[in-house]
Amino acid sequence: MPAEVKTSKKRKQDEQHDTAPGVFSKAVNMEMLSDEEGSEGEESDGQEVDEFPEIDANSDEESDFEDEDEEDEEDEDEESESEADDEDLLHVFPKAKTVVSDITGQPKRVYPEIEPEYDSDSSTEDAPNRVGNVPMHWYDDMPHVGYDMDGKRVLRPARGDELDRFLETVEDPSAWTSAFDKNTQSDKPLTTEELDLIRRLHAGENPDADYDPYEPTTEWFTGKGKEEIMPLSAAPEPKRRWVPSKWEKKKVMKIVRAIRQGRILPSKPKASAQPQFYAIWSEPSSSHPPPLPAPKTALPTNAESYNPPEEYLLNEEERKKWEETDPEDRDRDFIPQKYSSLRLVPGYDRFIKERFNRQLDLYMAPRVQRVKLNIDPESLIPKLPSPSSLKPFPTYKSLRFPHSARARCIAISPDGAWVVSGDENGIVSLWELSVGKEIRRWKFDGKVGSLEWCPRTDATFFVVGTEEALHFIIPPYLPPAIYQLTQTLLAPSTLPPTADASSPVKWSTAPTNTWTDDTPLLSIHLPTTSGLPIQIAWHRRGDYLATVSSGGGVWIHQMSRRHSQAPFKKVRGKVQMVLFHPMKPHFFVATQQYVRLYNLSEQKLLKTLTPGIKWISSLDVHPSGDHLIVGGYDRKLCWFDLELSDKPYKILRYHSRAIRSLHFHPTYPLFASSSDDGSIQIFHARVYSDLMTDPLIVPLKILRGHEITQGLGVLQVRWSNKHPWLVSSGADGVVNVWCN
Amino acid sequence: MASSSTGPSIPIVFSTQTPYPLPSQKFMLPASWKRYHLSQLINKALSLAKPVPFDFIVKGEILRTSLAEWCAENGVGEEETLEVEYIESVMPPQKMSDLPHEDWVSSVSCHLPGYFFTASYDGYIRAFDYSQKQAFTAQIHSASITSMCFIPSNDEEESTHLIATSSHDLSAQISRVTVASDPSKTSRSKVLASLHLHTGPVSSVASHPSGSHLLTSSWDSLIGLWDTSIPSSDEVPEPSITDRERKKRRKLNGGEKDADKLKRKAPLMVLKSHTARVSRVIYGKESSANSAYSCGFDSTVRIWDVENGLCSHTITASEKPFLDIALAADGNTALAASTDRTITMYDVRESSRSTTISSGSLLHPATPSCIAPGTTAHQIVSGAYDGIVRLWDLRSQKSAMTTFKAWEGKKKVLSVDWKRGMVAVGGEGGLEVWKAVEDVRS
């Protein structure tokens, strides 16, 4: 059996070490080999143990002798040579002689005896200076360098200057092998031994010239004739040395049996060092916050006392009720009992249940501490300049202009002096902005859906949109030049040729003899089913105007050619509003959910903006043309940077009801939004020409003053061109002027 | 003199500009005293025959509470000596008459003794005598009249006056008005000349104190200077008008003879400096009659050298579109009403023109639309869009001396005039006359 063999061999090896500690026998090596092979029997082992390697002592000795003889001869030669050269040479290391020992008969090395008188330190023998081992710089300022044996001063030998020394080195061939002797304060030539010593030290060799690092080993107990044949002890070899161990066998067999029966798994997976259970509440962890405090058990109350006051005891009704309710619905999971003394209290039958509940509580308790964010809400609010630094903006209601019905639309003249407002009774009033005095009034059939003043400065008129028609009206009190031009613009003496007679839009000019200031000079009759024009948008040059009808039809009318066209053959969704771009030949069309930007000259779609509003109610474009605000019936106001993205740059939700109207101030950095909640909100909106700087939007002021009638609030807001004044029309039939 | 009543007393030094001076002496007065006690004190101290009520101004604020309350409000210790200025009280104004108009009244004038003149948005000029009877009415303009002024003349007979009016129809007119003193005669009016310069509605017209020149301001940012002589023929050619207009014009003139036809006048000079609408132009007082003052929507008050037609000084405010300007009675202070609900005072004397800082402002709760000076240099009256007329003492700028409300409801006041103890208030509700004695002595 291999295990047995192994152990026995090991033991033998140990024994061998014990018996012959200094000998590295071949047998050991062989045994190690056999150990690796592991196939040899016990007999061979025993043979090897018995055998002892023969030691050829004689040959070794002979060779030793020869070697030493040769060395001796060489030494002698060297000695003779050195003696011949210089007898006074100092021997740094005394030379050894090899003699045959009388006792052992073996050759041995004998060193010359040290004679204390002369040989001990020959270097001091003729030193005249006996000052001793003192620092010689003590004599630096003296004429002498010490004292001789007789106490006489030893005078400092003459020493040349640097030049002499240099010449000396040139002239004297032995100068480079001499060294300065401090004791005599003079140069002294080094001896051959000393030079050799220096050379050896320099070469990193052993300084002793006689040292042989490769001396042959001296075999004391090995070799021919030196074998130690007799054992140290005469005791016979114990039996256990070669008989296999019974107890070991038994033990091994027990293990083997256990393995066979499966009691011991040879390759059992190691149990993890980590204990499976650990105190979750007590163990502090380095990476986690400190352990949570375990949920505390509720302290016992009076009802849990063994002798509670009477009022805690349940009466019959309460007990019955307690028993009827489900255990989880009971407000108390025990019945208070009264005992006259603690001695009478029975064993606690709910102990297990209570411990289980406690464990359940601990188990179910939240392990994560909810991190409470201590953030100052003020710090989250973006830093905005204070509204008072952004003056002027409208702050109060200056004027109030009443209408008899819902005032749906207003328009302010380009010079900012006049306001026209239209209501649902068909009345259009022209009044002075700064005073609020009605100057002129026009009456139309049906509602007035939209009003817009022509942006031209050389001609002054405004357009009123009523049911399926647009009326062009000249206000009174115009300078003659402007009046003439306006008249010729609206009613040219020679009509341009009608491009398409079958066009559904009819332009009709009032005949000059019947026309008065109270009637429109020019009317455009839209197709009969188009409905009320809800919006009129002028191009900035005042030649084109676009109208949106309540039926969703979009028409673009050209004043100079007296021609109307529908720019879109088919529109996806109902058009809410249209706008001309203030700079480029672009056209914004807002349908129910999207704002599309068309290039009119190239007749293609440029962009589709998705505000994320369910139903767009209004939009306005910044005077720079790069920014757009879109308001919706779902109270959202989206700011678009047209250069930036199709998605809103900012979404403002300040109104509590649907947004009705938006307007950018033409010159001041302001915009206003009006809503069905009856309020108007004024925002500061500064747009930077630097593309990297985001527009600054600051809510400034909420203007309240319109009443909500039939769920409708402020229907339209418009800015005065030159002043930060706002005009708003409400469903309550009032047009208000807000001043700074 | 200090009463022996209990409670703390306050050291007070009185000063005044009234003809009732007290010796400059420190009085220890009980802190519980109010205006009435102080007024009594002064009356007794001076032993006036007829009691004169006084008002007291402490640090630019009129005293309405007791001295102790005032000190507590303003954080003044009781040890401090208070300097109190006293002025004659203004009696609470009393309503004298209410004269409703068909249209809004844009301008009122008490210039003519015995009559109130009103100019209305319907183009009419009306005159009422003190017995509230309408003495005169005539349509001068076909469009709204924005402003009206009398042109003083010496050689005319008593009942005939020259009136200049400005209108929305881009022109101003000079009319001769004869008001009949007794009911047997009929009042007549005749438009003598129309002034043609402006291309926007004319906002105001003002006459030189001597009656020789007129100034008109307009929305087109121009100010026109005119003389009041009536030319024999048109200085400005009539615009080429269409047949329809000519017909209308003929109908309006009623086939008058050419000599009686109104003459079209051209301006002597155009004062150009404003950059936006000029809301009002006025002449200086008699001492500096060659200067004019104008204010406009460009937030400036300009002082003009009328002889040379130059703007001699410009006061620039920030974001204050001005609606009206008036000079205080001494002519040293200009008051300009702006849409930011303030009336701002500017010192317009030659010496202080280097600084354009306002010397104070009167805050209003609504847009102030008109200002009229009183006869003393400290008193003005202002009307606002909330229908309230306020009497101010410029020494007490924090609150008005007294206020009264014209008309029921919220009707705008568009014009005020204050002469001979009567405040004429014109506006949305017509004309109202209130009695407000500006000077107790008179």
From TrEMBL, chain A:
Full protein name:
Ribosome biogenesis protein ERB1
What are the boundaries of the region Disordered?
1-135, 204-223, 282-333
State the organism of origin.
Marasmiellus scandens
Q: Which residues lie in Basic and acidic residues bias regions?
A: 316-333
The entry sums up its family as follows: Belongs to the WD repeat BOP1/ERB1 family.
Per its UniProt record, what SUPFAM superfamilies does this chain match?
Answer: WD40 repeat-like (SSF50978)
Query: Which locations, inside or outside the cell, does it occupy?
Result: Nucleus, Nucleolus; Nucleus, Nucleoplasm
Keyword ATP-binding appears in the UniProt entry: no
| Any one Pfam family match given in the protein's UniProt record, by short name | BOP1NT
Q: Does the keyword Amino-acid biosynthesis apply?
A: no
Identify the PANTHER family for this entry: RIBOSOME BIOGENESIS PROTEIN BOP1, RIBOSOME BIOGENESIS PROTEIN BOP1 BLOCK OF PROLIFERATION 1 PROTEIN
Per-repeat ranges for WD: 400-441, 652-693
Q: What is the lineage of its organism?
A: Eukaryota, Fungi, Dikarya, Basidiomycota, Agaricomycotina
Automatic annotation (TrEMBL), chain B:
- What UniProt keywords are attached to this protein's entry? Nucleus, Repeat, Ribosome biogenesis, rRNA processing, WD repeat
Q: Does the keyword Nucleus apply?
A: yes
Q: Which InterPro entries match?
A: NLE, WD40/YVTN_repeat-like_dom_sf, WD40_PAC1, WD40_repeat_CS, WD40_repeat_dom_sf, WD40_rpt, WDR12/Ytm1
Q: Where in the cell is it found?
A: Nucleus, Nucleolus; Nucleus, Nucleoplasm
Residues in NLE domain copies: 11-70
Positions annotated as WD repeat: 195-227, 271-314, 380-402
Question: What SMART domains does the record tag this protein with?
Answer: WD40
Q: What segment(s) does the record annotate as region Disordered?
A: 233-260
Pfam families membership: NLE, WD40
Per its database record, what is this protein's job?
Component of the NOP7 complex, which is required for maturation of the 25S and 5.8S ribosomal RNAs and formation of the 60S ribosome.
HAMAP family, alphabetically? Answer: WDR12
Q: Which family does it belong to?
A: Belongs to the WD repeat WDR12/YTM1 family.
Under PANTHER family, the record lists:
RIBOSOME BIOGENESIS PROTEIN WDR12, WD40 REPEAT PROTEIN 12, 37
Binding partners and assembly: Component of the NOP7 complex, composed of ERB1, NOP7 and YTM1. Within the NOP7 complex ERB1 appears to interact directly with NOP7 and YTM1. The NOP7 complex also associates with the 66S pre-ribosome.
Name assigned to this protein:
Ribosome biogenesis protein YTM1
Q: What gene name does this entry carry? A: YTM1_2
